[in-house]
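Supplementary Methods S3. Input chains for the assembly prediction are listed below.
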Amino acid sequence: MATRQESRVCCSEFAIDVRGLNKRFGDKHVVNDLSMQVRPGEIFGFLGPNGSGKTTSIRLMCGLLTPDSGSGTCLGYDVIAETDAIKRSVGYMTQRFSFWDDLTIRENLDFIARVYQMPNRKVAVEKSLTGLGLTERANQLAGTLSGGWKQRLALAACMLHKPMLLLLDEPTAGVDPAARRDFWEELHRLAAQGISVLVSTHYMDEAERCHKLAYISHGTLLAQGTAQEIVAAQKLFTWVVRGEIADENLVQLSSMLANKPGVLQTVAFGNALHVTGRDSALLEKTLQETMAGLPYEVARTETGLEEVFIHLMRTSKEAQEAKR
Amino acid sequence: MSRRSFPFSATRCWGVVLKEFLQLKRDRVTFAMIVGMPVMMLILFGYAINMDPKNLKTMVFDADRSEFSRSFVTAMHNTGYFKFIDALNNEAEGEAALARGDAQFVVNIPSDFSRRLMRGERPAVLILADATDPAAASNAIDAVTRLAESVVWKDLGRPLTNASGSAPPFDVQVHRRYNPEGITQYNIVPGLMGVILLMTMVMMTGLAMTRERERGTMENLLATPARPLEVMTGKIVPYIFIGMLQATIILLAATMLFGVPFFGGIVELYGILLVYIAATLTVGITISSLARNQLQGVQLTFFFFLPNVLLSGFMFPFYGMPHWAQVIAHALPMTYFNRLVRGIMLKGNSWPDLWPDLWPLMAFTVILMGIALKFYRRTLD
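Predicted structure tokens for the full assembly:
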């Protein structure tokens, strides 16, 4: 195996260590006081609704944007002064497919190998093609590939120079479940080798596969830590309501519970309804009163990531509206 | 960490060159345009624009230094066509000035001019004219030949006794240099080379960066370690080959279709072509760095293209323009290229004659590359 890119990660505790990053576009505050640390070998999930500042944050970290204020390092290199070094040692996969449509898969990879000055370029390109199952399509123009194959090409290209840190901006959007599973297995293999991964996603199952998570909304980091830590920090209590209920009843039930005391939110999961609140006793009392005589089974359940994120998104939205 | 210190990587730059070539190869329409346009434009514009420029730069070698020679020079000046910029010490100086393009006309007045004039021996005044641009020279030549009849009679104090029978007291002999028949195509066709190259080269590279930006591939390119100079050079190099190909097509058409003579060296011609193409490509790259999108790129290209065509001496005689326009024209690469290419093809000029117009082109290229680098956006900000 070829040697990994040089980095100063040996000398610093974190693969990514940014503090107080700010970025404004006009009067829009896109990234607000972002501080985030990613350890070597960690898969760090970056979550948040569309337009929350995930892409901008990632661009700030890999030197594609200059922060208005704040500081930080990526693999030990300064995000403002040493962007050249960061670019050499980081693998960045853009959210939108950004390879050259009028070049073939092999030509795209070949170009990337050349700009990263890879030794044994041809071998590396062939290996990458085989590794991702792209050999047969090597001479196909990138522009004619389907979405899933484009993602594969982009991933292959950003890992070609064997970076110590991968910044992946929604890498699995539009990718089928089997390919997603393969992709995540590959990420865990890489992490086991000590490679750090920052990956933004909208999928809960992917979030649960991450070692650590951060949730960002309107440019502000709302929660950070392991899935358990994030769930615990919100101090939410969830009850599940099950029964032989058809969908319309579930909707009815949901709106019935929505404004009752102690109920923060209701989320439907198949034919079960998750009811979440902050005050456990009050919520239990409400549920018992409402459900009395109805053919439902009510039970305590663990609060999941999904409930927490929906809660975070809702409170952040309310906070934003209150500000206006 | 040794790699960090290299400011320029040939590997990375070559990577960009190959990428550009491949993309160009796949763009059939552009490729057809590159080959087809020179031929079409040559056939379309291979016609002359005749103008009547005045105040043409003239030098005089007055070996006679008499009242008559001075009065003849004054009379020439009074026609409005000639502007005397220098007095020469011998004939050779005049030849050299003509070859360099410092003068358009050189007047040689022989030492025995006034003596022979008094004796009625009809002495001759020799005027050398740079006729590479025939439109610029012809009216001036007509004017000076008529002078002989009117001016000197007055000075001699003799009235015109009989208009029909009297010959002028002296002879004006005009030698049209470099293009004796005054064929306009000889002037226009080499100039067209400059126009076509400017148009394609500036336009192609003018869109090079904005295309990456609009297709969304710029983010990828910026995320790689490729440095601005490597990317720019990488985008320029393929077009140098394209430009050379175009120039060759035009050259073949010029000699075969229009029979333009070729007196100079092929090495000199390709040498100046290389410099000129590099200059036009840096203009394109600069436009590319400034423009936000492809439309702006096209607009800027035309903004640059028009003054080049109109002021460089391609369309209208250079010395027919007012001084301020000439100053502007001296900041445009086509002005120099016009002189260089005509100098080589029609005058057979070699390096020492070419140098005064060659170094400004080189300086132009370096300065513009600096500007392009300064405005190259290294981030997505």
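Residues 56-177 of chain B form a domain with the abc type-2 transporter like fold fold (CATH 3.40.1710.10). Confidence is low (pLDDT under 50) at residues 1-5, 159-165 of chain B.
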